[in-house]
Design goal:
about 425 residues, alpha+beta, Glutaredoxin, binds iron/sulfur cluster, 2 domains, 5-stranded mixed beta sheet
């Protein structure tokens, strides 16, 4: 198998089965993400998600964090690894953000790595998650999994990053980082990879190599064999005979054997279920189709004004549904539509955003980002349900119900002319204009 075929096989598998892999760290804006990623070095995401809610509640901005002392921050993060250093890094990072970057998280790797506590891996995570850059953050999982699969032959994380970037198509680099992490976290475990339930065996160099060795007389996986060195340093296999008495001692009754087999089967079924949940999840998608009459709606916007479908007779509408005000993806999407708003207007389009946030939250969001269009407060989720955009989805590795990001283009006659389910948040305005 060529390297190209191996990359194609692995990427195609993930593209089909894990289309929306994301970080498992909880955050709701770029500042929270960089804090969470700094904390996550040498620590589990689960642990970080336990400490960040209180930290974000009390120190929600660079200003508040910069004004804190590292001793105070230490108390919030004492249960994570290296809390002393990380507390200092966080306070210094917030200070540098204010002093050198106007309180904004920089988007360039070269600038990100200047921040205290931000190494190349953290910088790559931030650049790819927040700014959609084709940056590959190599952590222990990415390093191990890509070496085992045979995507890389690397001795250092930097080599791994360079090799992965070279072969993974640019548009998949950011997601590939999460694919490899999740695969390493749940299937290709460091000590005992779950090859028996792994869907990537076909392309995995480690699996193929070990499978060949398994049947060979010098298999390293055979516990009854150990390697020794001959005088001229060439490896030699020494066969250690199994002791009969040990075999007798380990004999188990047929009932016990059956129980063990049952337990193994249950464990395997659980492992497969976990993998199915993690890797074969398919998100809900609206049942409304192009050509359907757009369902009527009416709701108040951020100014308290009632907005109805009937108000837009003779106009085209971009009706976009988004999960939550002020979150990174929704901010990028709204800003992208804001930037193309004049152009859309000239083409006789109105833009309306819908989420379950209330009028007050919409106002804060719209004011902060100078959004020139209405955001409808669908707090009872009537519009969301009539457009069938509420359903099961996956985000940050978790599966739960929520608003599925979807945009409907409604023509002058009130008919749906486009349904966009693969919303590209950063360039959504352009994505819509390309359809015209
Ligand atoms: S086959 Fe085994 S070693 Fe290869 S990626 Fe899967 S779990 Fe990892």
């Amino acid at each position: 198998m060529t390297l190209k075929e191996r990359y194609e096989g692995v990427i195609n598998y993930f593209k089909t089965n894990v289309p929306t892999a994301e970080t498992e760290l909880n955050y709701s804006n770029p500042f929270e993400l960089i804090v969470a990623v700094i904390l996550s070095a040498q620590c589990t995401d689960k642990r970080i998600n336990q400490v960040t809610p209180k930290l974000f509640r009390d120190y929600p901005t660079p200003e508040s964090l910069a004004a804190a002392s590292s001793d105070t921050i230490f108390k919030y993060i004492r249960s994570v690894s290296y809390p002393n250093n990380k507390a200092k890094h966080l306070v210094n990072m917030a200070n540098m953000l204010l002093k050198d970057f106007n309180g904004e998280i920089p988007s360039e790797i070269d600038e990100l790595v200047k921040l205290p506590g931000v190494g190349r891996k953290t910088a790559n995570v931030v650049a790819s998650v927040i700014y959609d850059k084709p940056a590959m953050a190599v952590d222990t999982h990415v390093f191990r999994v890509s070496n085992r699969l045979g995507l890389t032959k690397a001795k250092t994380p930097l080599q791994s990053e360079q090799q992965l970037i070279k072969y993974i198509p640019e548009q998949h680099v950011a997601t590939a980082h999460h694919w490899l992490i999740l695969h390493g976290r749940y299937t290709c475990l460091a000590r005992s990879p779950k090859c028996d339930v792994c869907p990537l065996t076909e392309w995995c160099r480690f699996f193929k190599t070990n499978k060949i060795n398994k049947n060979a007389p010098h298999s390293l996986s055979n516990k009854n064999q150990i390697m020794a060195k001959t005088e001229n340093s060439k490896p030699k296999v020494v066969i250690k005979k199994a002791s009969a008495s040990k075999e007798t001692k380990n004999k188990i009754s047929p009932v016990a054997k059956k129980n063990v087999e049952k337990k193994v089967a249950t464990k395997k079924a659980e492992a497969i279920n976990t993998i199915n949940e993690k890797t074969k999840f398919i998100a809900h998608s609206t049942t409304l189709k192009v050509g359907n009459k757009a369902p009527a709606f009416s709701a108040k916007d951020q100014h308290g004004k009632t907005i109805s479908l009937a108000d837009f007779k003779g106009k085209n509408i971009v009706l976009y549904f988004y999960p939550k005000d002020s979150t990174p993806g929704c901010t990028m999407e709204a800003c992208s539509l804001r930037d193309e708003y004049n152009y859309l207007n000239k083409k006789n389009f109105a833009v309306l955003g819908v989420s379950a946030d209330d009028e007050k939250m919409h106002k804060k969001f719209a004011d902060k980002y100078e959004l020139p269009f209405s955001l409808l407060a669908d707090t009872e989720m009537k519009i969301i349900k009539s457009y069938d955009v509420w359903g099961t989805k996956q985000f940050m590795g978790k599966i739960y119900d929520g608003i599925i990001r979807t945009t409907f283009i409604i023509n002058e006659k009130g008919i749906i002319s486009h349904v966009i389910t693969d919303v590209k948040t950063k360039e959504h305005g352009k994505q819509i204009l390309d359809l015209m």
